[in-house]
């Protein structure tokens, strides 16, 4: 059995189904975010993979959709270090209910200090400022869900 199938089997055996709910996972194109995206899709959610790496995000969505089952995935580009990109992503997601928001994206600690175009430290901009702005922008969509959850 492939590793992605192991995740799906575990999720289906241990968690409640999400039956068509919508989840947004930042950094869902690789690593922990990809594993979370696979697990949520295995439970029947439509997972929006929000990632700055378009190739990884599209590939992740394609791999999840190829697994079959009740869940599905799509990709939405977002660079959490860029406020305009966060606003564009949130607007594209609209006000349809978001049942689960997983604020997962981040970067490894840099060997040297890096900043955004606005002068914010890059890791802080992604991990805190970007996720805060995305969560705030999605509050109407989260509020439209029956029992929304935000995982940070």
What is the name of the CATH superfamily? NAD(P)-binding Rossmann-like Domain
Reading off the top of the CATH hierarchy, the class is best stated as Alpha Beta
Task: Please state the overall shape, judged from the principal axes of the Cα atoms.
Answer: globular
Amino- and carboxy-terminal Cα gap = 30 Å
Strand order of the largest sheet: 3-2-1-4-5
Structural class: alpha/beta
Look at the structure and give the mean pLDDT: 92
The second-level CATH architecture is 3-Layer(aba) Sandwich
What is the helix/strand order? Answer: HEHEHEHEHHE
Characterise this structure.
- A 5-stranded parallel beta sheet has the order 3-2-1-4-5, sandwiched between helices.
- The two termini are 30 Å apart.
- Helices cover 45% and strands 15% of the residues.
- α1 (3-14) crosses α2.
- It has 152 residues and is of the alpha/beta class.
- It has one domain (3-151): 3-Layer(aba) Sandwich (Rossmann fold), CATH 3.40.50.720.
- It has helices at 3-14, 31-42, 54-66, 83-93, 122-137, 139-143; strands spanning 22-26, 46-51, 72-77, 100-102, 149-151.
- It contains 6 helices and 5 strands; from the N terminus they run αβαβαβαβααβ.
